[in-house]
Structures are given as C-alpha cells and as structure tokens.
C-alpha cells in the first residue's frame, strides 16, 4: 500500500518521534477536536497525494464555499517583483488555503508564512513557510523569518497573517478584532522595490469559539479544525487594496510600519462602506461657446492698471468685478463648468454661475498671447459682503453655520472658492504658483485681509472611505468649536482606524493609506496640500448641496503665520513689509 493511501491527517503529523502514551492522547484529541472527521473526508474524497493546487480546490469544493472578490483581488496582485501580501486572520486556517490558491494563480512563486498547525495537510506544505506564533522563543521561528526576507528580497511573493493568531473577542473594543501585528511585516515592506498589498477577509467563527476562547486563549487553537469544518456553505468576501510601493513607507520604526499595514488591511473591510447618493445632475447641457477673444481682450485692457497684480512672460494675473468685465466672468463660469465636469462636480448647465458672481471678486490668470483665461479663484471680501447682505452674502454660509466667534464674523477675511485651472495647466506648478502669487499680491495691496478661509472640494471620484480618512486626519478638534456643517458627511470612521490614529500621527501616512484605496493612486487633493504648506487649520467638512453634493473641507490660513519662505516665494520682497505692517498692529 502506498504512503499516500496510508497517510492520516492527525496532530501526530506535527510531532516527531512521539512516545506511545503521547500517541494515545493525540488519538483522543484528534477525535475531540474534529481532526478525525477531517481525516475521513480526506480519504472519502481521495485527496491524498494531490498537488497543492488540486488539494486546495477540492477542499474548497467539499466545503461548498461561496468565495467572492476573487478577480478583483487577483487584479491587484503585481505579476512580478517583490510583493508582500498581508491579511487579517478571521478563521484561523481556511483563509490561508483560499488566499494561497487564488494568489498563487497570479504568482506561482508565492510562499505563505503560516502557523505550523497547517502542516497536518502534507499536500499543502509546498505553499508554506511554517512558524509558531504562540511561542516567540521557538527556535524554528528565526530561520523561518529569515527565509521570508530572503524570498521577498529575491523578487518573490509572500503572503502572511501578521497577527499570528486567529481574530478573537477583545473586551476593550467590545468586539472581534485582530491581535497586534508582528513587526516582521514592517521589516518586509522596507525591502527595496517591494510592493505591499493589504487584504481583508470578512467573516467570523462560531459564537462558541469566542466564548470558550475568553475562558482560555489556547482553546482557540484547539478548536480551529472544528471551525474549518463548520464553514460548509459559508460566504467569504475577499477585499484587497491597490499595491503601495516601498518608497511610500517610513521605515525607521518597523512596529509603526506594521501598525500602518494593519490599518490599511482594515481599510478594505467591505462591511465598512458608504455609497455616494445618486448624482442630482443626470443630464449635461452643452457648454456655452467660448467668448470671443476680442471681447475678452477689450474688457481686460479697460481694467484699471492697479488691478493687474502679476505679470510673468505671457501670463498676467488680474482681479475684477462682473460689472467691469461681464464677458470675462461669463468665460470664467464656462471654464469652471468645463473643469468641474471632469471631477463629477459640474452643474450640468452651460455655465457654472450663481448670484455670488455679481458680488464676489474674480481673480484670474490671462494668457495675453492667446487671449485665454487659464485659471481663476472667486474671492469674497467678508467685511463688504456682510455690510451689504449680512450672512446671506457669504456663499459658505449655505454650507456652514458660523458662530459669532468665527473669523469671518469678527474681522475682514477673504473667502476663497470656485478655484480651477484649465486642463493644460492642471498639474502644472506654474499655474498654482501664479494663482497664489496673485492672492498674495492682493493681500499685500489690502493687508487688512490677512485671514483666508474657504473650502477644498473633495471630488466624488474619491471613494467615500478616502474622504472620511482625509476628514478624520486633517480636522483637529481644537478648530471645530465655532463652526458646524449644515449637511454633514454621515459616515463614521472604522473603529480600528480611529484606534490606530490615537496611537500614532497618521497624517504622515495618509498617502499610502489613500493609495491602497484609490485605483489611480491619488492622495490628498493638490489644493489641500497647498493650504497645508501655508499652515492651514481645518475646521469641518460639509456636503455642498449647491455643488452636486460635493464634500467640502473648510479651512483657514493666517498669512502672518505662514512659513516665511512661502511668503517670500509668493509675495517677493514685499513679504517683510507685509509682516512689519502687522507687527505694528
């Protein structure tokens, strides 16, 4: 009789040269823990001697598992080069088999760092590098971890479950959660050219598993075989993030990197979800035809010379008012609509305009060579607007309830909004530089407006999870007292991410977290980054009902407290005179 035919699934397979009393005890444990039943299935379905792929397929088929998200996960696995894939560990065994099989179809070189308990299935041993997570002093752990590092360093793919143990009930979290992740995953993500793919498997074990595990933690290990068999007919959802390159991780502290990797895994949890409401704009009307360049040139030439703020080669930055340049404001509104449609923020009308265009100041870039508007900001001078129309004179009053203590009601401010750059200027340092030089030139000209405030629109092309992450990591509680959103973004942060943010400053890590969620790798919006550089404070996030339900992040900048190097860049040699003006106040 062949070795395959006589092979039995048993705890004995994990013990070398056991004495007969031990073997007797093991037989009793095999029966009590469900391993004997597993052995019967093993022989009934003729699984002995199968390849690791066929064995995994047969086990999944026997258990009649409904596995969802396979294709989406496979599409996120890099097909070559070093990659670390880390997952939560909700079941304690079957997820290792499932992920190994599915990822192995994309990466035949896949190795899995796994609990040595899975060694009872000899057909699967080629997948695994075994470790003993319950004993950090186990002498076999060191060589196993070195083998992982060598494998990834040589360009291989590695799957691991850094918690090292199955998820369990945690009283302090009032629910089922992962153990702290081992720092090895932080070490692995520091390997040159490595990519990291976070995975989250949705699901739980039986209630009895968690109840007994609270009595004594080692019982969980003993119950895993029964829990595997209890998964018959289960629906298992696989969720994976997009790969994040090694260069985006900070590697001075492997423990913090491991915590970040854990957070990125929980970001993928499909039970934590929110769907954007259906777009109000269901039909886009044709854009208005461009305004005749002769009309633009004539209006701009007629503006008072003091309203030209900047001149740089072919570009000029002006400010003006609708009554001075009605055709120019029409063209600005047309271009706003054109650009906003790219980000799912368009009104659907031929122009993006409202009655505030008549009362706000328009700051814009003009290409004098081509007679084109290249970008613009809409600025509200709050002292003048409040004097004329009260709070209804402020656009952002529709989005936020400003207490009397908020800056726009206490002293003159500039409310900034409706910013855009035409497509050929987007991503251009020059375009943003010209706009900010224009703003700073205006502030130097009228230094009473040292305070800027406004919103950064966060396109609904971002996932709601990303928007919540940006909101949670940028808004500090000390800046929220005097303002509240009229229409809030009613989506709570995942409890595990909230807990993680209490342990470390995630602001520096928001880049890789967003990259794991966004298919195009986008991070914090460019304009938000610009405000952050200027020393912005973030106050609240609201849904702009007048702007296709787009989230808007309210912030403020005190120009006097902005970094001097940036003031010098935008204001030139005038920056010191501006600071001296306020020093004397």
Automatic annotation (TrEMBL):
Pathway: Lipid metabolism. Coiled coil: none annotated. Residues 75-245 form the Putative acyltransferase ACT14924-like acyltransferase domain. It catalyses: a (3R)-hydroxyacyl-[ACP] + L-ornithine = a lyso-ornithine lipid + holo-[ACP] + H(+). Keywords: Acyltransferase, Lipid biosynthesis, Lipid metabolism, Transferase. GO terms for molecular function: acyltransferase activity. Its EC number is 2.3.2.30. InterPro entries: ACT14924-like_Acyltransf_dom (IPR045746), Acyl_CoA_acyltransferase (IPR016181), Ornithine_N-alpha-AT (IPR052351). It comes from the Bacteria. Catalyzes the first step in the biosynthesis of ornithine lipids, which are phosphorus-free membrane lipids. Catalyzes the 3-hydroxyacyl-acyl carrier protein-dependent acylation of ornithine to form lyso-ornithine lipid (LOL). Belongs to the acetyltransferase family. OlsB subfamily. This is L-ornithine N(alpha)-acyltransferase. The lineage of its organism: Bacteria, Pseudomonadati, Pseudomonadota, Gammaproteobacteria, Alteromonadales.
């Amino acid at each position: 009789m062949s070795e395959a035919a006589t092979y039995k699934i048993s705890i004995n397979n994990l013990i070398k040269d056991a004495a007969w009393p031990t073997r007797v005890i093991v037989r009793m444990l095999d029966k009590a823990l469900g391993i004997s039943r597993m052995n019967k299935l093993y022989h009934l379905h003729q699984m002995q001697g199968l390849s690791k792929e066929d064995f995994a397929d047969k086990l999944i088929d026997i258990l009649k598992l409904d596995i969802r998200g396979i294709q989406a996960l496979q599409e996120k696995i890099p097909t070559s080069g070093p990659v670390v894939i880390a997952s939560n560990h909700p079941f304690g065994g079957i997820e290792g088999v499932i992920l190994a099989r599915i990822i192995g179809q994309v990466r035949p070189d896949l190795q899995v760092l796994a609990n040595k308990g899975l060694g009872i299935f000899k057909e699967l041993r080629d997948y695994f590098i075994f470790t003993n997570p319950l004993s950090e002093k186990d002498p076999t752990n060191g060589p196993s971890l070195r083998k992982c590092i060598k494998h990834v360093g040589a360009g291989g793919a590695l799957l691991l479950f850094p918690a090292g143990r199955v998820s369990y009930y945690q009283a302090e979290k009032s629910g089922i959660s992962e153990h702290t992740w081992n720092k090895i995953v932080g070490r692995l993500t520091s390997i040159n050219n490595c990519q990291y793919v976070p995975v989250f498997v949705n699901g739980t074990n039986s209630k009895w598993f968690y109840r007994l595990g609270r009595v004594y933690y080692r019982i969980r290990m003993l119950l895993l075989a029964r829990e595997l068999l209890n998964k018959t007919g289960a629906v298992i959802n696989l969720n994976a993030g997009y790969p994040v390159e090694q260069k985006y991780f900070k590697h001075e502290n492997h423990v913090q990197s491991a915590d970040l990797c854990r957070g990125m895994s929980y970001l993928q949890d499909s039970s934590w979800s929110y769907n954007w409401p259906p777009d109000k704009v269901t039909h886009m009307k044709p854009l208005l035809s461009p305004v005749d360049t002769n009309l633009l040139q004539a209006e701009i030439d007629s503006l008072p010379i003091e309203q030209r703020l900047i001149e740089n080669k072919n570009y000029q930055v002006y400010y003006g008012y609708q009554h001075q340049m009605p055709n120019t404001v029409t063209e600005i509104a047309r271009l706003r609509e054109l650009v906003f449609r790219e980000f799912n923020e368009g009104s659907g009308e031929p122009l993006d305009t409202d009655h505030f265009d008549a009362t706000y100041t328009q700051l814009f870039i003009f290409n004098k060579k081509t007679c084109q508007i290249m970008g613009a900001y809409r600025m509200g001078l709050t002292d003048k607007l409040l004097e004329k129309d009260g709070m209804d004179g402020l656009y952002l009053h529709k989005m936020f309830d400003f207490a009397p203590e908020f800056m726009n009601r206490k002293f003159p401010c500039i409310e900034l909004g409706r910013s855009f750059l035409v497509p050929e200027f987007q991503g251009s340092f020059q375009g943003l530089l010209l706009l900010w030089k224009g703003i700073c030139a205006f502030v130097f000209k009228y230094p009473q407006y040292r305070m800027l405030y406004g919103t950064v629109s966060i396109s609904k092309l971002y996932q709601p999870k990303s928007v919540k992450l940006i909101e949670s990591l940028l808004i500090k509680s000390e800046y929220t007292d005097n303002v509240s959103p009229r229409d809030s973004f009613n989506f709570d942060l995942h409890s595990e991410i909230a807990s993680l943010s209490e342990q470390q400053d995630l602001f520096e890590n928001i880049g890789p977290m967003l990259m794991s969620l966004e298919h195009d790798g986008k991070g914090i919006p460019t304009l938000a980054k610009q405000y952050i550089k200027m020393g912005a404070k973030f106050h609240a996030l609201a849904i702009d009902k007048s702007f296709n339900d787009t989230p808007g992040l309210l912030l403020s900048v005190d120009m006097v407290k902005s970094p001097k190097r940036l003031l010098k860049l935008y204001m030139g040699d005038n920056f010191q005179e501006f600071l001296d003006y306020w020093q004397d106040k």
